[in-house]
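User: I'm new to structure prediction. If I give you an amino acid sequence, what do you actually give back? Let's try with this one:
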Amino acid sequence: MPDKKPPRVPPKRKKPDKPENKPENSRKGEITGKLLTTELKRLAHLAHSVDDEGNPLTKQQVLAAMVWDKALGYTKVDKDTNKKVEYKPERWAISMLFDRLEGRVNTADKDNKERPLSEKMSDAAKKRIESATSDAE
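Assistant: Good question. You get back a string of structure tokens that encode the predicted 3D arrangement of the chain. For your 137 residues, that looks like this:
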């Protein structure tokens, strides 16, 4: 009887060990969301265009400028008719900028019953101020 060769077993692949992308006790959607956020942050820092002085502008800077334009209103020249078209300020952009400048964070999870991060931060700041004033006395 000829010697039989053992069946060929493919080598095991090592999975990348990235604990920040695979948190314990999390749902699949949360992992996907974190990966997407990581990738969006990486892309936001890439150069998009150059300003008048030759300095590179990131996608993040260009997007922020677009939101400001929407909030303040702007005028644009129509290429076909060569007429100026005036765009009025958009409420959503004004609201978003105001909230961001005031330090309020808009959370995407509306069903979450926990307190928002802004409230937690407010409480933490109050405790710090109280402890600092009590130490001074």
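You can read the tokens as a compact description of the fold. Here is one thing that stands out. Residues 60-105+117-131 form one domain.
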